């Protein structure tokens, strides 16, 4: 029984090793279809080591698994995968899964048994985009998926606190980050209610994206709970990426005191309402009214960070959330 896996394997990165490992652990002998130098020249946007060197690196990696394997030249996308009776499984990534389904259709038409499809999930770089040879070649990441060039993040806000929290979070996550504050965006109403909060966060994110990698919009809004009859302050974060894919996250919510709710209904923001009631200005740019009301046990920064972190969760397991492609 033979498992096949194909590719160019120009830089032997963590995604490639995951594919080869899945093949090695399939229990079968492995055949690696390695694209020829001509294929690399004609089909890839980058140069890379020649066939012999790429083959050597694959052999070096696979020899650690103690399995039988061979590396063969491949100069088409499917090689002889649709005609060989010896093959019983194929290793794919989310990007190449559809190709395997087409191979199986053609195998069945030719009266051959379909290949068992062994799918490797996206192996993500520290910026939550998949590792790829193109990105390594462009100098964005290294073979382990660490950022080499700065990750470029835009955020639409006039509030330095949101920018600081966003910068600190992405630096912890991706290392090398540049944050660009965008102040040209429509604020809609000063104090959004309910679903407007989500719409304004989304609009801010798209306004911040421009030609960057991520655009961020964070908006705190008031959500009325019919069951309790109370109004909750919740931070909503929208994150849009360079492929136009948008995800959302929300912070935990806390009950807004009645005197502030009344003023918000008259069109004030929570900060303006708090100023009228206490004489303290711009509370939203520091620990927030939540900081005061909670005697500093909860700060606005923590709610902002929580909404951003929650908005990134769907990007940490893209396939589970139904994301198939990263291509534009
Ligand atoms: O798409 P480009 O930038 O050309 O480069 P690549 O890294 O995908 O390079 P290959 O075409 O050699 O990939 C070989 C196989 O590995 C898969 N693969 C590449 N990067 C992956 C990643 O980050 N996670 C999972 N699989 C990946 C890819 O889909 C192919 O099935
Ligand atoms: Mg690829």
Automatic annotation (TrEMBL):
Family affiliation: Belongs to the eukaryotic CoaD family.
Domain Non-canonical purine NTP phosphatase/PRRC1: residue ranges: 157-316
Gene transcribed to yield this protein: coaD
Limits of the Cytidyltransferase-like domain: 4-136
UniProt enzyme class: transferase
Functional pathway: Cofactor biosynthesis; coenzyme A biosynthesis
GO terms of molecular function: ATP binding; ITPase activity; metal ion binding; pantetheine-phosphate adenylyltransferase activity
Keyword ATP-binding on entry: yes
Reaction(s) catalysed by this chain's protein: XTP + H2O = XDP + phosphate + H(+); ITP + H2O = IDP + phosphate + H(+); (R)-4'-phosphopantetheine + ATP + H(+) = 3'-dephospho-CoA + diphosphate
Any GO CC annotation of this UniProt entry: cytoplasm
Species per Swiss-Prot/TrEMBL record: Thermogymnomonas acidicola
Subcellular localization: Cytoplasm
The protein, known as: Phosphopantetheine adenylyltransferase
Protein EC: 2.7.7.3
Gene Ontology biological process terms from the UniProt entry: coenzyme A biosynthetic process; nucleotide metabolic process; thiamine metabolic process
InterPro entries with a match to the protein in the record: Cyt_trans-like (IPR004821), ITPase-like_fam (IPR029001), NTPase/PRRC1 (IPR026533), PPAT_arch (IPR023540), Rossmann-like_a/b/a_fold (IPR014729), YjjX_NTPase (IPR050299)
Cofactor section: Mn(2+); Mg(2+)
Role noted for this protein: Reversibly transfers an adenylyl group from ATP to 4'-phosphopantetheine, yielding dephospho-CoA (dPCoA) and pyrophosphate.
Keywords: ATP-binding, Coenzyme A biosynthesis, Cytoplasm, Hydrolase, Magnesium, Manganese, Metal-binding, Nucleotide metabolism, Nucleotide-binding, Nucleotidyltransferase, Transferase
């Amino acid at each position: 029984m033979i498992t096949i896996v194909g590719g160019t394997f120009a830089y032997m990165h963590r995604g490639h090793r995951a594919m080869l490992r899945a093949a090695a652990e399939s229990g079968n002998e492995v055949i690696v279809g390695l694209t020829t130098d001509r294929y690399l020249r004609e089909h890839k946007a980058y140069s890379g080591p020649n066939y012999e060197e790429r083959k050597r690196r694959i052999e070096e990696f696979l020899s650690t698994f103690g399995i039988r394997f061979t590396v063969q030249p491949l100069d088409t996308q499917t090689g002889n995968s649709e005609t060989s009776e010896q093959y019983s499984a194929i290793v794919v990534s989310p990007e190449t899964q559809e190709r395997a389904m087409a191979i199986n259709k053609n195998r069945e038409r030719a009266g051959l048994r379909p290949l068992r499809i062994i799918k490797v999930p996206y192996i993500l770089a520290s910026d939550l985009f998949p590792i790829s040879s193109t990105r390594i070649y462009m100098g964005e990441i290294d073979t382990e998926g660490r950022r080499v060039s700065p990750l470029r993040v835009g955020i639409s806000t006039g509030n330095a606190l949101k920018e600081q929290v966003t910068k600190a979070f992405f630096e912890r996550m991706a290392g090398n980050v540049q944050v660009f504050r965008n102040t040209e965006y429509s604020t809609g109403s000063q104090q959004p209610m309910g679903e407007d909060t989500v719409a304004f966060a989304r609009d801010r994110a798209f306004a911040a994206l421009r030609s960057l990698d991520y655009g961020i919009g964070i908006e705190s809004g008031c959500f009325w709970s019919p069951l309790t009859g109370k109004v909750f302050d919740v931070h909503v974060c929208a994150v849009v990426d360079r492929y136009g894919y948008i995800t959302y996250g929300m912070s935990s919510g806390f009950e807004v005191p009645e005197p502030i709710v009344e003023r918000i209904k008259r069109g004030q923001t929570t900060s303006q309402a708090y100023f009228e009631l206490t004489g303290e200005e711009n509370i939203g740019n520091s620990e927030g009214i939540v900081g005061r009301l909670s005697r500093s046990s909860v700060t606005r920064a923590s709610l902002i960070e929580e909404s951003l972190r929650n908005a990134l969760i769907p990007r940490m397991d893209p396939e589970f959330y139904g994301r198939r492609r990263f291509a534009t």
